[in-house]
Amino acid sequence: LIVSLTTEAEPAVVERALAGLGLWVRRLEADGRVQFYVEPGSARVNAAEVSRVPGVAWLAAEPSPHPLVDAQGPAVRVDDVSIGGDAALVLLAGPCSVESETQIHGIAERLAGFGVEFLRGGAFKTRTSPYSFQGHGEPALGWLRDAADAAGMKVVTEVLAPAQAEVVARHADLIQIGSRNMQNSALLAAASARGRPILLKRGMASSLEEWLLAGEYCLLHGAPAVVFCERGIRSFDPHTRNLLDLGAVALLAHVYGLPVVVDPSHATGRRDLLLPLSRAAVAAGAAGVMVETHPSPADSASDAAQALPLDEFGRLAHAIRSGPTAAAVDVD
Ligand code: PEP
Ligand code: MN
């Protein structure tokens, strides 16, 4: 954004007024005229508000590369559940993979009792190794849907390929795009064309701008809403699986005004960090938290090290819903 001043304006006075709006500016002078370049780290304020500052003549703004995302707003609805804005914190939980029909029914029942809105679980899994469990595929979608219906929950599950978009959309309320596919534009288009909202996980090496543009693909191709999901980005330190980028969460929530949920499970790869980072996510502005939980983590067909036992998940759910002042809960 470029802010041009009137000839009579006192630049220092205008600069202070702009700083009061949260705009940090660099002064540009040409032909005796002063203009301010608004630094990218500034707050997002609407143009009309800037125009009203005394001494401002006109504004020149670059068109946004993601106008549909900008227009979406902080709250979206998935069926009768609101995510973001003034809505209550939303919980999305379940196993990494849907392992069996009886198991997912048992999990759903427990999670519904903890007030979880969305049952998660992969039917089609994106695994780093081709030798790892790849999911039970289409039958697992049916098990997941039935289990969620029986427990009064919504379904969130991942689509891996355009050819699966139809069947996934038939079973899911919220379609998940995984980290490894965030920039797969053909998949974003196919999944979005089914008319369901999208849970867009951040690519593990993607910038915020790339993430927002992936969201733009979804909205452009027919998704009624996009919920962003921070799940950690690549780092140099092997102590955690990824690095949970809470700065990006705060930016999306507070600066861009978008619904964002946090997945501390894939971000850390460790069950012992899920409670503190779920709390931190909520404090940073997350509208929801997605956690992997399993009745018997050691037997989990995928991501065993990060799966939280169901009863511990129940304590986590209670703790993060009770707010930041609640007594610390020991999950060990
Ligand atoms: C998942 O949530 O099941 C998953 C595979 O996560 P990610 O895409 O973030 O690795
Ligand atoms: Mn997983």
Task: Give a written overview of the molecule.
The structure is a single chain. The protein is α/β, with parallel strands linked by helices and 332 residues long. It has helices spanning 11-20, 47-51, 67-72, 101-113, 138-151, 165-171, 185-192, 208-220, 246-255, 264-268, 274-284, 310-321; strands at residues 2-5, 25-30, 33-38, 56-60, 75-78, 81-84, 90-94, 118-120, 154-158, 174-177, 198-201, 226-230, 260-262, 288-294, 308-309. The strands form 3 sheets. Strands 7-8-9-10-11-12-13-14 form an 8-stranded parallel β-barrel, surrounded by 8 helices. The protein has a 4-stranded antiparallel β-sheet with strand order 2-3-1-4. Residues 325-332 have low confidence and may be disordered.
| Rounded mean pLDDT score | 94
- Characterize the largest beta sheet: strand count, sense, and whether it forms a barrel: 8 strands, parallel, barrel
Instruction: Find the count of extended strands (DSSP E, 2+ residues).
Output: 15
Biggest sheet strand order reads: 7-8-9-10-11-12-13-14
- Give me the oligomer status: single chain
Helicity, in percent? Answer: 25-40%
Structure ligands: phosphoenolpyruvate, manganese (II) ion
Structural class of the helices, strands and pairings? alpha/beta
What is the 3D shape? elongated
Q: Proportion of β residues? A: 15-25%
Radius of gyration: 22 Å
* Distance between the first and last residues' Cα: 50 Å
Uncertain runs with pLDDT below 50, 5 residues or more? 325-332
- What is the helix tally? 12
Instruction: List SSEs in N-to-C order.
Output: EHEEHEHEEEHEHEHEHEHEHEHHEEH
